[in-house]
Automatic annotation (TrEMBL):
Name of the molecule in the record: Phosphatidylinositol transfer protein N-terminal domain-containing protein
Comp. bias regions, Polar residues: 267-278
Start and end residues of each stretch annotated as Disordered: 253-278
Gene3D superfamilies reported for this sequence: 3.30.530.20
PANTHER family hit by this protein: PHOSPHATIDYLINOSITOL TRANSFER PROTEIN (PTHR10658), VIBRATOR, ISOFORM B (PTHR10658:SF11)
Transmembrane annotation, as ranges: none
Length: 278
């Protein structure tokens, strides 16, 4: 098992991030869907646990077989690569569990996230994990403005070094020390447990998954910042209406054409106006 803690500093408040995260999650789902693959939202509803914890529960299926390594596709039967995601969003704390029906308890990715206002990634154990887990944990700081991304994912309008928010006056993030100097500021502390029990492949696949998650976090938070003028000022009711519309769109898009790009998703999102963060 790998234990990674990704720390993502954002130029927004914790309450602003809640809306931006939900919006960007909804848009990312549209970006990944089409051509028979993508995201299917089965449940998106409020929950309350016996301990009093309240939040939003989501249950999704990710059908993204073409995006897994070829050496895994070669040995896995058809349909075995679907991922099932359960998420409990009790913001500012969120928990997400990803599993696979074929591998059952031999595969899991568990995310625990704490969103902390006025933090710049300095908390040593924000999620209060055990001493034994701390010894295994690797901390990875993410700089959305300066970390490298896959060239195929680069888009100038999703570059924090180029984006200026008209609504908030924030950006572009050209100061090399922007993490130390930006206001407002908050940090997502994302603790990720990655386990893949398959003899001969465990180390290779767990390393691949960790790299993929790292890249996804960079891309997602770059988009969240650069889409600020689209989500800033939205209410939670606006977000729920957007999520409902996108659920309908996803059901259609999975069965037609290739995945749509983020530009098209943004246009669709604006027409609705009034989705870890799930």
């Amino acid at each position: 098992m790998l234990i990674k803690e990704y720390r993502v500093v954002n130029n927004c408040t914790e309450s602003e991030y809640k809306i931006g995260q939900l919006y960007a999650t909804a848009m990312a789902s549209k970006e990944q869907t089409g051509g028979g693959e993508g995201v299917e939202v089965l449940k998106n509803e409020p929950y309350e646990k016996e301990n009093g914890e309240k939040g939003q529960y989501t249950y999704k299926i990710f059908r993204l077989a073409s995006r897994v390594p070829s050496f895994v596709r070669a040995i896995a039967p058809a349909g075995a690569l679907d991922l099932y995601e359960e998420a409990w969003n009790a913001y500012p704390y969120c928990k997400t569990v990803l599993k696979n029906g074929y591998m059952k308890d031999n595969f899991s990715i568990v995310y625990e996230t704490l969103h902390v206002n006025n933090s710049r990634g300095e908390l040593d154990n924000a999620l209060k994990i055990s001493d034994s887990d701390l010894k295994k944990r690797e901390v990875v700081m993410i700089d959305v403005a300066n970390d490298k991304i896959d060239p195929k994912d680069y888009k100038p309008h999703e570059d924090p070094k180029l984006m200026h928010s008209v609504k908030t006056g924030r950006g572009p993030l050209t100061d090399k020390d922007w993490i130390k100097n930006c206001e407002p500021v908050m940090t997502c502390y994302k603790l990720v447990y990655i386990e893949f029990k398959w003899f001969g492949l465990q180390t290779k696949v767990e390393s691949f998954l960790a790299k993929t998650i790292h890249n996804l976090f960079i891309k997602f938070h770059r988009q969240l910042f650069c889409w600020m003028d689209q989500w800033y000022g939205m209410s939670i009711d606006d977000i729920r209406a957007l999520e409902e519309q996108i659920k309908k769109d996803l059901d259609v898009k999975r069965n037609e054409g290739p995945p749509i790009d983020a530009d098209s998703a943004s246009v669709a999102g604006n027409s609705v106006k009034t989705s870890e963060g799930k």
